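[agent] plan:
  1. take the single chain provided in the ticket
  2. run structure prediction with default settings
  3. attach structure tokens to the ticket
  4. add a short note for the reviewer (M.T.)
[agent] executing step 1
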Amino acid sequence: MSEAPAPERAGHEPRANLSTLGVVMPAYNEGRWVLEAVKAVLAAAEAADWHPQIVVVDDGSSDAHSLQVLEDVAALPGVRVVHQANAGRFAARAAGLREVDSDYVLLLDARVEVARDSLLRIRQAVRQGHDVWNYDVVPASRKLGPLFWTGITKVWWRDYFRSRRPVAFGIADFDRYPKGTGAFFAPVHLILDATRGFESHFADRSLASDDTRLLRHVATATDINLSPEVMCRHHVKSGRGSFVRQCYYRGTTFVDGYLSDAGRAPALLSGAALAGAVGAGLFWRAPGATIAAAATGCVAAGSLTRWSGGTGRESAAVALMSPVFGVFFGAGVVRGLRLAARPRRTGPITES
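[agent] step 2 finished; step 3 output follows
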């Protein structure tokens, strides 16, 4: 097996040993996907000759099938399942981090299957001093809903997706490249530093964002590596109801992840209300022209997706589903701004 390609920018010397790999996986009513994800990690760890310590955190699952799957998962070697009342993905990850006893940890979503050779490539790269990795995520489904999410991801981070290649980025170019805690490898102490004292803009901790601001903290300390040879597959939830709920949820967490100052929330909320009123007024006065403009925007979004490295089917998904996304993601943003504008008297999210 070839070694992971060297990133474009140098990393730093590894700080710890590689005897054990910690894996933290939150799960909430994920059914069989938890089992599939754990089996993929076990296979990858075996290929890398890496002893796994997998902690699956059940975030208050309620359906009988998911609970049975969790029992099956707990019987696998190197796997431990811990249970908590439903508190959200961020809190579940924090709980899992308290349970691992390793110097390195892989944060992983329950619907993500890592490639068999991915941990071997990471382990080889860590020996060369590159010890923070974000997986390159590819969709596992060809349905329009999942392809919409991969399509807009490619538009947002087109610098990478137009020409996939090994890169390493820090805080200066943080917003140019894809990243997320759905499949993220790093020294445990870096993740703990990022989560310790993290304060959501929301009083409802179950809606706290566990991606952007958390990883921004990591990027201030060291480069994050990304390569198409360190890959995983993501099984995005499909179906109309799931897509709408994801749009609404992501709009809300977008505010928590990207709003730097909660004090700006009231002004932004007023701006959103004004924009909505203007849009409604335009539709009332000229519905035909408004619909035509929206259709033109959808076609342009699909074309931009294609130019950004998306497939033809991803481009079609973005063009067709942008109106639904715009409505419900926008509603989620409004909800997030409302939550951020309220007084919040809770402490750091990692408090026990």
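[agent] step 4 note for reviewer: The first helix runs from residue 33 to 47.
[agent] ticket updated
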